[in-house]
Amino acid sequence: MASIVQFENVGLRYGTGPETLSDVSFQLGRGSFYFLTGASGAGKTSLLRLLYLAQRPSRGIIRLFGEDTVLLPRTRLPGFRRRIGVVFQDFRLVPHLSTWDNVALPLRVAGVPEEDVEQPVREMLAWVGLTDRANARPATLSGGEQQRVAIARAVIGRPEMLVADEPTGNVDPDMAERLLHLFDSLNKLGTTVVVATHDFQLLNRIPDAQMMRLDKGRLLDPTGALRYPPPRSRP
Ligand SMILES: Nc1ncnc2c1ncn2[C@@H]1O[C@H](COP(=O)(O)OP(=O)(O)OP(=O)(O)O)[C@@H](O)[C@H]1O
Ligand SMILES: [Mg+2]
């Protein structure tokens, strides 16, 4: 299968501290579904930030959509980022915009005519159960409601790749399942999905999903996308 992302011996160091990610190598198949797991502090958010180009690696090669991102001129970054839907661990909604306008934002930025914005936003809000909160500002929403706005905003443009960081951390199990169904539907339309989560209940819900497991900055699981480090043979 063609890969949409390739990491080769990627390392990430913040400032002069120790490496947060070391020797991370993997490929993501276009159209596949991945879960990224690992203890708090293992480096999940850091790895996702590299994926959606919020952060450059300290070493190694990252290819995205077939291009070497280290060589990518800054002017091309926004075009790349528009192809990726991101659900941030801390939501990052636009504070002065309503729920409706936050969710509509990616379509408007992409230049979709206003008459074609209304229906998808209406459908998306219904799906995440926020129709009656359409006019609310983020500060007046609960954590779970903000999370659902963030998810609606990330998926509405049907991005080529969806990167979601603990997207169900603030919602109840029924809603978590509903949101996962949304990711699954998007995946079936061709979007490559990467979901970082602590929630082991979720992992079994997508039978075809592959697992990537981080431990102290290194990818562990040899069965999924991950090929490094090689599994240690037992004595
Ligand atoms: N901007 C930063 N500057 C310095 N260190 C950082 C920064 N961001 C993360 N770190 C460090 O990198 C390590 C990995 O953090 P990261 O947020 O990637 O972990 P995580 O797996 O997402 O954890 P969690 O499950 O708690 O969200 C941690 O030790 C953290 O303190
Ligand atoms: Mg994190």
Biggest beta sheet attributes: 6 strands, mixed
What are the low-pLDDT stretches, counting only 5+ consecutive residues below 50? 224-235
Query: What is the arithmetic mean of pLDDT?
Result: 90
Indicate the CATH topology of one domain.
Rossmann fold
CATH class of one domain: Alpha Beta
What portion of the residues fall into strands of 2 or more residues?
15-25%
Query: Bound compounds, please?
Result: adenosine-5'-triphosphate, magnesium ion
Strand order of the largest sheet: 6-7-8-3-9-10
The helix count comes to: 7
Gyration radius, to the nearest Å? 18 Å
Helical proportion?
25-40%
Query: How many β-strand runs?
Result: 10
CATH superfamily of one domain: P-loop containing nucleotide triphosphate hydrolases
Q: Label the overall shape.
A: globular
Spatial gap, N to C terminus: 34 Å
Q: What is the chain-wise order of helices and strands?
A: EEEHEEHEHHHEHEHEE
Corresponding CATH architecture of one domain: 3-Layer(aba) Sandwich
Structural category is alpha/beta
Report on the structure:
Its main location: membrane. Belongs to the ABC transporter superfamily. This is Cell division ATP-binding protein FtsE. One of its GO terms (biological process) is cell division. Part of the ABC transporter FtsEX involved in cellular division. Important for assembly or stability of the septal ring. The chain is globular and about 45 Å long. A hairpin with a 5-residue loop joins strand 1 and strand 2. The longest helix has 16 residues, at 173-188. Helix 3 packs parallel to helix 5 (143-155). The two termini are 34 Å apart. It has helices spanning 44-51, 77-81, 99-109, 118-127, 143-155, 173-188, 200-203; strands at residues 3-13, 19-29, 33-37, 59-64, 67-68, 84-87, 161-165, 192-196, 210-215, 218-219. The chain contains 7 helices and 10 strands. The strands form 2 sheets. It has a 6-stranded mixed beta sheet, with helices on both faces. Strands 2-1-4-5 form a 4-stranded antiparallel beta sheet, covered by helices on one side. The protein has a domain at 30-52 and 83-211: Rossmann fold. It is α/β, with parallel strands linked by helices. The structure holds adenosine-5'-triphosphate and magnesium ion. Magnesium ion binds at residues 44-45, 89, 165.
